[in-house]
Design goal:
Elements (H helix, E strand, L loop, with lengths): L34 E7 L5 E8 L5 E9 L7
Antiparallel strand pairs: 1-2, 2-3
Length: 75
């Protein structure tokens, strides 16, 4: 799957990304430069794992996105 970048500021958000539709309004508890993961199921039913990095202005960028294989019961 192709990864699209936005102006050198990380990957473009997809539905389910924390930054899809804009930056979050919640107060961040981690320091700028910190990274944290976010897992979700996308609109196609795939499990997605994203890693975000907090910027000095407290905005978030998506530094990494990985699509996990779909697992069925018994696999």
């Amino acid at each position: 799957m192709k990864r699209r970048r936005t102006n050198g500021r990380g990957l473009e958000p997809i539905p389910g990304s924390i930054t899809y539709g804009g930056q979050p309004r919640t107060k961040l508890t981690k320091s700028p430069g910190s990274a944290f993961p976010h897992d979700f199921i996308d609109q196609y039913g795939r499990q997605v794992e994203e890693t975000y990095i907090i910027q000095p202005d407290r905005s978030l960028i998506i530094a990494h996105r990985q699509y996990k294989p779909i697992r069925f019961f018994g696999d």
